[in-house]
Structure formats: C-alpha cells, structure tokens
Amino acid sequence: MLPKGISHSLAKFEGSVHAIVVNYPALLSVFMEEKSGRALSLHKPVSTYKFLYCAHFLSDVLKQLCI
C-alpha cells in the first residue's frame, strides 16, 4: 500500500498519461498544423513509436499502482 501523498501524486500523473494516450492522434495533428518552432520541435520526438509505447506502458503500470 502506497502512502496517501504518493498515491495522490501517482493518480494525477496517471490521468495526464492517460490523456496523452487517448488524445494522441489529435495531439499529432495539432503539432503538424502549427507552424511555430516549439510545435515543430515537439512533433518529431512525440511521433516516434518509442514515445507511444512508453506512454501506453506507463498508462498500464500507473493504472495498477493507483488501484
């Protein structure tokens, strides 16, 4: 059993990771449409399979920790 403070922090982080996984296609399309340097610099690392794999893995692990 995790302490209450850590459990709460993990639940917030799990929500953020879950939002990335659920909204991934929309996130990529926004990065492609934006012409700012910041959006273009984020598009390359976010569009890799490693990022998506890690996001799904984290989502699965954090879901189990937050139960």
What would your notes on this structure say?
It is a single chain. The protein has 67 residues and is mainly alpha-helical. It has one domain (4-65). The protein has helices spanning 4-22, 24-33, 37-46, 49-65. The longest helix is centred in the N-terminal third of the chain and has 19 residues, at 4-22.
Number of helices: 4
Order of helix and strand elements from N to C terminus? HHHH
Counting structural domains, the number is: 1
Sheet having the most strands = none
Overall pLDDT confidence: 87
Supply the helix-strand structural class.
mainly alpha
Looking at this protein, list some descriptive labels.
67 residues; mainly alpha; 4 helices; 84% helix; 0% strand
Spell out the blueprint of helices and strands.
Elements: H1 4-22, H2 24-33, H3 37-46, H4 49-65
Short description:
This protein has 67 residues and is mostly helical. It contains four helices and no strands.
